[in-house]
Design a protein that fits this description.
Elements (H helix, E strand, L loop, with lengths): L33 H7 L6 E5 L10 H11 L4 E5 L18 E5 L5 H5 L25 H12 L5 E4 L1 H5 L4 E3 L4 E3 L2 H5 L3 E3 L4 H12 L13 E5 L7 E4 L19 H7 L18 E2 L5 H10 L4 E4 L3 H6 L1 H13 L8 E5 L4 E4 L8 H8 L17 H6 L2 E3 L1 E2 L10 H4 L5 E2 L2 H14 L6 E2 L1 E3 L13 H6 L19 H11 L6 E2 L7 H4 L3 H10 L4 E7 L3 H7 L4 H18 L4 E8 L6 H13 L8 E2 L7 H8 L20 H11 L7 H10 L35 H6 L2 H16 L8
Parallel strand pairs: 1-2, 1-3, 3-4, 4-7, 9-10, 9-11, 11-12, 14-18, 17-19, 20-21, 21-22
Antiparallel strand pairs: 5-6, 7-8, 8-13, 12-13, 15-16
């Protein structure tokens, strides 16, 4: 009988014997100075976390989660926050850690944090005191790692966080417009932790404490390291070519239990699963029969590694780059993912399969740690915008099974939803109510990467473990997906009925294509949890770009809008939907943007601030941007060419279509419409997109604050709302909830 995949089991986070240093107790704040260490009675730190963010002791900040979790394991953890990177002295401030340096750029990729989509330097940084930019270097993980090595040569360095996750293999870098090595190679660190790092970082800490050498830790899921040779007892699937790569997309139909599938083919299960070859030598599967490959993939996945095209190959061959990206994304399900190996210029980069998702009990364990929930006292009265945004919000889950190609949540947090218990969430709300300074009774958000995936999952754990599809909701909501929102509805009701809680708002990104499956949820949301305006992201109206985004058609938006308006009227309220859109996404033509502009005008929307597509490292849409190929399908030399609005002029034009109402854009749009043969859209009637006349200087388009604009238009003209939109775009690229990015 064919073996069926089940989600592998992992050691629970609270199942480790605590380290001897637990006798020091828990720190009110993790120390940032020698003086604080002295007050705690510490002569040294076991682990030092170096971060590009200001240290906020809150579970929305990575350094706090990692630090408090390691502290709960008994380790003494220090924080070096936003150090001066120009020399090693700042990295010597707490002395040498006994076990390792943990290095992270922070809650955002440092390049996305520093530069706009047009590669212009930002003057602000929401994760820095007083919103001041320039407090972290470009490619922070690389720079910090080098300084740690300079400060203490023999101390292990482990890099992690979003920047490490998104750059773990050879990747296209938008800012240099070239393919870069894995960040592990550039940083010269000992190990890279990707994805949700709790399991890996706890395992690394305990192994180092037990005296193991970090160079020998090759079996920890969710990690990457450099190796000299592939172990001899591993089976190698060579997938370094597009002409005849090792097959990576099958064998299992994830919606059919394998034994029934075999019977359906007229064969007994045992007949369709020939015995796998002996494992005493490394085996390359290109030279095996399809039946042998199938048996090996089903029975020996834990000893199978896929060989990706090398760094040199993906640098010089865009088809191979797209192929490598496709392989990577097909190996993201922790239930069936295999190890990957990629040559990085003489060295071999080894990536273990993704970490096993945390259970509800483990999620509670992580979020129930004694966080101070405020910035470290070191910052005094300084304002940290990212903290202010999440101060009164609660993270209820992780992950997203949406699979949007421009988003990096799948690459970082994964598509299996990890939920907290209602009891833990309610406890955190009560803590905010009773202890967080300045609380006025309003919870600003109750969500995560998405607002309404809490406790949603595949109906079958076996199907979930076997599935290799990149999305559970594209091209339509999967029939095997449980879309029951009752747990979330009950959570909302319980939260809003707590004493001292006046309002619970929902600000995370809403999957409206899921919401329409539960009218009861939409009614609860609209009646009690909308603060006048609800922001959702159709992203486009045309199938061309939507298919490349893996987003639903505009019909799902129309259906949700109808429900929203119905329940708003029933509640006797005045509330508005604010849809957001991306310009210049791969797959978008000038005609697509023109049609979107016509849709916006016909629906009365005027956007003051709009966002161009931002190619973040390793995202599928970024691969389309770089290669012009579509990795959502098997990549071949003659694969579909994806239209990419890449030039500055083209990106500017697409952005101008979104702001069709701005007179500054009219000359450009007139020329574009003429070249497209659509002069019929130039005129002074209501059915025209832009007028024939050009206003005199100083008398053109006024902001949407004008007295004739609708409430929705006025709202869209506010600077705060505009900045939040940019945060949402960035959050989709960083894998963080929108409230965690300003």
């Amino acid at each position: 009988m064919l073996a069926t995949n089940k989600m592998p089991k992992a050691r629970t986070l609270y199942d480790y014997p605590t380290y001897w240093a637990e006798c020091y107790g828990r720190a009110p704040f993790l120390p940032m100075s020698r003086a604080e260490m002295d007050e705690l009675g510490w002569d040294s730190c076991d682990i030092i976390v170096v971060t590009g963010d200001a240290y906020v002791d809150h579970p929305s900040f990575g350094m706090a989660i990692v630090g408090r979790l390691l502290e709960a394991q008994g380790f003494r953890v220090g924080i070096i926050s936003q150090p001066d990177w120009h020399d090693k002295s700042a990295f010597e401030a707490l002395g040498a850690p006994n076990l390792f340096f943990g290095v992270t750029a922070g809650n955002m990729d440092s390049m996305i944090n520093r530069y706009t989509a047009d590669r212009k330097i930002r003057s602000d940084d929401a994760y820095s005191p007083n919103d001041i930019g320039g407090k972290r270097p470009d490619r922070s993980s690389v720079v910090y790692s080098h300084r740690c090595r300079e400060a203490f040569t023999d101390t292990p360095v482990v890099i992690g966080g979003i920047e490490a996750s998104l750059r773990r293999i050879a990747h296209y870098d938008y800012w240099q417009d070239k393919v870069r090595h894995s960040i592990l190679t550039d940083a010269k660190a000992d190990m890279l932790v990707y994805g949700n790092g709790e399991r890996a970082i706890v395992e690394i800490a305990h192994r180092l404490a037990a005296g193991q050498n970090i160079k020998q830790m090759h079996d920890i899921r969710g990690t990457a390291m450099m190796i000299e040779d592939i172990p001899e007892d591993w089976i190698v699937i060579d997938s370094s070519k597009v002409d005849k790569p090792g097959r990576i997309e099958q064998p299992v139909n994830p919606y059919v239990v394998p034994e029934y599938e075999a019977q359906g083919e007229g064969k007994a299960c045992q007949d369709s699963a020939p015995k796998a070859p002996e494992e005493n030598n490394t085996q390359v599967l290109n030279f095996m029969s399809s039946e042998e490959r199938r048996a090996i993939r089903q029975n020996k996945r834990d000893k199978t590694v896929l060989r990706l095209p090398s760094f040199d190959m993906v640098t010089h061959d865009k088809a191979l780059y797209a192929h490598a990206n496709r392989v990577l994304h097909l190996e993201t399900n922790p239930g069936n993912a295999r190890a990957l190996v990629q040559n990085q210029g003489g060295q071999k980069l080894w990536l273990n399969p993704p970490p096993i998702p945390l259970t509800t009990e483990e999620m509670d364990y992580v979020f129930d740690q004694p966080y101070a929930r405020v910035p470290h006292p070191h910052y005094g009265d300084a304002r940290i915008p990212a903290y202010e945004m999440i101060r009164f919000s609660v993270n209820i889950m992780r992950g997203c099974f949406g699979g949007c190609t421009f988003c990096s949540i799948t690459e970082h947090e994964g598509r299996v939803i990890q939920n907290r218990s209602q009891e833990s969430i309610i406890k955190e709300i009560e803590t905010i109510r009773d202890e967080v300074p300045g609380f006025t009774g309003v919870i600003s958000d109750l969500g995560g990467p998405t607002a309404n995936m809490y406790r949603l999952a595949c109906k079958s754990r076996e199907i979930e473990a076997n599935c290799r599809l990149p999305s559970c909701v594209y091209p339509d909501v999967c029939s095997n997906l449980n879309t029951d929102h009752s747990s979330l509805i009950q959570l909302y009701k319980t939260a809003r009925e707590l004493p001292g809680i006046k309002k619970v708002l929902i600000a995370s990104g809403l999957r409206y294509d899921l919401a329409i499956k539960s009218p009861e949820y939409v009614e609860e949301l609209v009646t009690h949890h909308v603060g006048g305006y609800l922001k959702i992201a159709p992203e486009h109206t045309e199938r061309g770009p939507l298919d490349k985004m893996m987003k639903p058609g505009i019909g799902a938006y129309d259906e949700f809008k109808s429900m929203f308006e119905e329940f708003t009227k029933k509640a006797g309220k005045k509330q508005f939907l604010i849809p957001y859109f991306i310009a210049a996404h791969p797959g978008t033509t000038d005609a697509d943007m023109m049609n979107l502009a016509l849709w916006l005008k016909s629906n009365g929307f005027r956007a003051d601030q709009v966002q161009n597509f931002y190619p973040s490292p390793m995202a599928t849409a970024t691969t389309m941007y770089h290669t012009g190929k579509n990795p959502l399908k098997r990549v071949k030399r003659d694969s579909e060419d994806v239209p990419v609005p890449k030039s500055g002029a083209k990106r500017k034009l697409h952005k101008a279509f979104l702001r069709y109402h701005d007179s500054d854009n009219w000359p450009m749009l007139r020329e574009a419409l003429k070249s497209m043969g659509r002069v019929d859209l130039i005129g002074n009637g209501k059915h025209h997109l832009i007028p024939t006349y050009q206003p005199k200087a100083g008398k053109g388009y006024q902001s949407a604050r004008s007295k004739n604009s609708s409430p929705v238009e006025r709202r869209k003209g506010r600077g705060a709302g505009s900045k939040i939109r940019e945060g949402q775009i960035l959050s989709q690229h960083t894998g963080l909830p929108p409230r965690e990015v300003n």
